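Re-running the complex after MR caught last week's input typo. The corrected sequence lines follow. Everything else is unchanged.
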Amino acid sequence: MSTPYIGIYGATSFTARECLTYLCSHSEKDKFQLSLAGRTQTKLDKVISDLNEKIETVVLLLTDEQGVKEWVKKCQVVINFAGPYALYNAEALIKACAEHGTHYVDVCGEAYFVAKMIERYHDTAKKTKTCIVPACGFDAVPSDLIVYLARQTLQNSHPSARLTKSTTFFSVRGTVSGGTIATLRSTLSLPPSQRGGSQWSLIPLTPPTSKTKWPTFAATEYVPGTKEKLYGAIFPFAPFDKAIVRRSWYFTLLHDEKDPGFRYEEYVKIGSVWLAWIVSLGVYVFFGLYFFVPLFRKLVDRFLPQPGQGATLEKRKKGWARLINVSHTTTNVKVITKLFAKGDPGYIATCYMCAESALSLVLPPPSGTSLPDIAHQGGVLTPMTALGDVLKERLKRNGVVEVESELVIDSGH
Ligand SMILES: NC(=O)c1ccc[n+]([C@@H]2O[C@H](COP(=O)([O-])OP(=O)(O)OC[C@H]3O[C@@H](n4cnc5c(N)ncnc54)[C@H](OP(=O)(O)O)[C@@H]3O)[C@@H](O)[C@H]2O)c1
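Corrected-run output:
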């Protein structure tokens, strides 16, 4: 078999550049070739010269349907970093990949756009047995992985038990890029009803209750087996993560009649209940002012990076993310799962997670693992339903994440 091509669209973006550095020094570098595509030759040339590598480049606009088709056909997997995804017409790449049997991954966090892609291309991708996998960055691999691991840990020793309430608390040190700010603006420019903020927005099922539920400003959870209590404030990225975890749950449900009513929540980990209230209120007030008071927005924008910009490598290297998930179950045990990622969550961990997601689809799996059956059927999938143990092992083996998961006898909290 010839060496597979990994196509990178939006190769000039801030996020793609770190992904390329990672791929160019990867231990399996001789097992794949790269093809970089973007809008401007001079910018692509600069990327190549910074990398000091000989890599083919292709100038390609996403309005050029024929050009997109030809490039996609040549690749075995495409990674797309050109976002905001809805705004820059990622649909052209997704459509071509689904029709021509080229796998696709991205770091999209736009729920309404993912929902539209599911509606339009899930069946096409199934016909060609192609995996279309959005959300392969920090949004939402850690959330999807931590619940996957919790479920696996539980069912390895209690096969008939199921997760019920599962909550992840995030501690994060990170930065933000101009592309992410542009994406946030593009999402919030839509009427609220079209933003797809519900965790049920990516599946063809309706939520069990229709009661209006106010957001929890201060969540609390015991760490089973200890006296430690976790406090959580509102996490602005939670709605998208929850929608991805819910879609993974939906695929599990297709083979499992026994779901007891799985619930998933995410919070920022905070030191006390009062602080959680203050932080949650602060998040609401800040976003409220930013989106409804033009003068405030103008002032804040002066300090935010523009598209193409982001923090220095030195700053990004100091970043990290630590997650702790407590999952309740249908039996007398709880599951504690911890995940640690070194480096800026959005602009180091994201780049490595996305790279490993693409490699999971085209390189031989780590020994003892294989892609889940659903990956061979294709569709618009989630990171863990498409890549399962293969991605988990790749991320561990290449030092992208450290994970541990254990069962603890339920002490009654
Ligand atoms: N999920 C996560 O955890 C995560 C983390 C980081 C980033 N992201 C997302 O990744 C995306 C990229 O962020 P970034 O900061 O890397 O963005 P960026 O540096 O602003 O790069 C945007 C890219 O899109 C290209 N582009 C601009 N307009 C285009 C158009 N009309 N058609 C095709 N391509 C176009 C740009 O090409 P030129 O260079 O030619 O302008 C550039 O390559 C954003 O959506 C962001 O939210 C997600």
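None of the earlier attempt is carried over here. The pocket of NAP is lined by residues 10, 12-15, 38-40, 43, 62, 81-85, 88, 107, 109, 137-139, 177-180, 183, 307-308, 310, 346-347, 350 (CB under 6 Å). The domain at 5-137+347-398 is CATH 3.40.50.720 (Rossmann fold).
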